[in-house]
């Protein structure tokens, strides 16, 4: 094992690159970063997101102290699909529950919700919710 990190710090990658850039990088990393040692993840475009057990996964995480609400548990599967279906019937409700969350087709294929959609949506939110102008690193609640 070891602690050497290979690759960039993803903590604030959200919004830095387009969805298309992330898709190209995940499908063939060296096509956008020639020196990349990252393996390709093109298979994510072929795998549909399985939302059937999503609520159960969130319930298990809540048992481990992740602060999911009852509403989040009840809407887990619907919200997962709604985020990648901007014209879908649940997109508006999703946006009401998660103001500021990106709602769009992330992988370029509006006919399916894939694991590529899910990963790009995740990458696009990393660090995006932090207001660094008001963040106080020395505040007791932010020290570890």
CATH superfamily: Cytochrome c-like domain
- Level-1 CATH class name: Mainly Alpha
Structural class of the secondary structure composition? mainly alpha
Radius of gyration (Å): 17 Å
Mean pLDDT: 91
The total tally of domains equals 1
Tell me the number of helical segments per DSSP (H or I, 4 or more residues long): 6
Per CATH, the architecture is: Orthogonal Bundle
Distance between the termini: 24 Å
Strand content: under 5%
Give the overall shape, derived from the CA principal axes.
Answer: globular
Which regions contain 5 or more consecutive residues with pLDDT less than 50? none
Largest sheet: none
Fraction of helical residues? 25-40%
Total count of strands: 0
Description:
This protein is mainly alpha-helical and 144 residues long. It has a single domain, classed as Cytochrome Bc1 Complex, Chain D, domain 2. 35% of the residues lie in helices and 0% in strands. The protein contains 6 helices and no strands. The protein has helices at residues 19-27, 54-63, 70-74, 76-83, 91-97, 115-125. α1 crosses α6. The longest helix is centred in the C-terminal third of the chain and has 11 residues, at 115-125. The protein is globular. It starts with 18 loop residues before the first helix and ends in a 19-residue tail after the last helix.
